[in-house]
Amino acid sequence: MSSTHNGNGSQRLAGKVALVTGGSRGIGRATAERFAREGAKVVVVSRSGADLGSDILSLTGDVSREADVSALFAEIERTFGQLDVVVNNAAIEFEGTVDDTTVEQWDHVMTVNVRSVFLTSKCALPLFRRAGGGSIVNIASVDGHWAEPGLAVYNTSKGAVLALTRALAIDHGKDNVRSNAICPSYVLTDMLEQFFDHEADPAKARAQAASIHPLNRMSYPDDIANLALFLASDEASFATGQSYVLDGGLTAGRTVDLSRLLSTETAHV
What we know:
269 residues; 8 helices; alpha/beta; 41% helix
């Protein structure tokens, strides 16, 4: 299900070539499909190499591995001869505090979530310069701005993505390379749905997750794709170095009335 859908598209990315990592499902797939409807030639890469139809070139690879990323960009250059947009979406999550996290688990999350952004951005820069500019859109998280309990390495990795987003913008703006990040809260992907399905009361878990957002719902992958489209397009030509929080108001302030959690006596002390 999606909150918005543009069936025909307005060709806002006509003539552009876009790469979407982690594009086999969820946010990546929604973004790839939206970009294709908007006229872009789209390449997706994932470890599964899922088939997204004839309009999207789907490749298999691990973007945390330098050799795979080099091969990916060689294929993009051979097939299209250009690149204009990179959406860094590939990521994993590990639940645990610092106490609960092994060195191997820490390194794995940081490799997938941060090194992949470094590698794809590094390989994209020469192609962007040749094209006269380009746009990098990094899918981060609200957890890059605040710490969600029990997600120590995930929080850290998304904070690092925001720092790298800014560094790319500062260092490569002279080449007309723009770099921005999108920071969603809960997104109704297959992965999140599977999490809810394993809860004791799935319906209650979904309702509680929705209720912490002032809009009283979670986002859909298309919500993220809509913002990614804007940041990838020429309409965002002056937008760079920023993190765009897309969270239904979650981080705007408290959604719980603390006074209701306090006894009358305590409240009047």
